[in-house]
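hey so i finaly got around to running the thing on Phosphatidylglycerol--prolipoprotein diacylglyceryl transferase from Pseudidiomarina halophila. pasting the sequence first so u can double check i didnt mess up the copy paste, my clipboard has been acting weird all day
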Amino acid sequence: MQTEFMMHPSIDPVIFSIGPLALRWYGLMYLLGLAFAYFWGKRQCQMPHYAAVGWTEKRFSDLLFWGFMGVILGGRIGYVLFYQFEYFSENPLYLFDMSSGGMSFHGGLLGVITVLAIFSRTTKINFLQVGDFVAPLVPMGLCFGRIGNFLNGELWGRVTDVPWAMIFPAAGPDPRHPSQLYQAALEGLLLFIVLALFSRKPRPMGAVSGLFLVGYGVARFVVEFFREPDAHLGLLGMGWSMGQWLSAPMVLAGILLMLWAYKSNSAAGKGGTA
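ok and heres what it spat out for the 3d tokens, dont ask me to read them lol
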């Protein structure tokens, strides 16, 4: 008997519009991610081991604004360079065509790292201590972003016959993994829970940042086996997607950072998150 698969509801990407102004689901997800980061960051400012480093609500608010800008600019630049470089080389103005969509997490990460480096230098807070503070704020933004991808019916998964497969009209008649929801759960909710629990107590400087890199890199690498590769790129060397090639170095860097953190620091000693 043929299995009846779910059909993606094809939700209008625009929630409502007033004249030329429109609120889109993806934009709303960004705002929810920003709101959650603000909420959790304020909680962290009240934790003794973060306050001891010099974190205040004002410092955090300043960082949040510039961090958000780093996500937007870095995400766009990363997408263009990592996924659309050939098209960009022929049409340089494509970089500024935000209406066409396209954001890269790995590019956004590089944008945020740049902002953190500048913030560290101006506030005299160690760069790794800044990273340790910010790391737990990121996953829920990723969670909301992937939900936005799902609502938009984009970045779908590979063809499958699992009972929860879904037909995305824009992808054709074949049922596919709802990989956006896999990413929301693993890269978002689960990673947040792990980091929130891990960072509740003082940790060696760099350990929280390292765990984030490992956690995200592993989650993204695994989910890429279920996500449809970009049509214009396909699978690259070793049968890996671009997302996997960008995530593998994150895992390695995170492991090395955690090893260094626990070798060079102690949770109660100098230089740690406390």
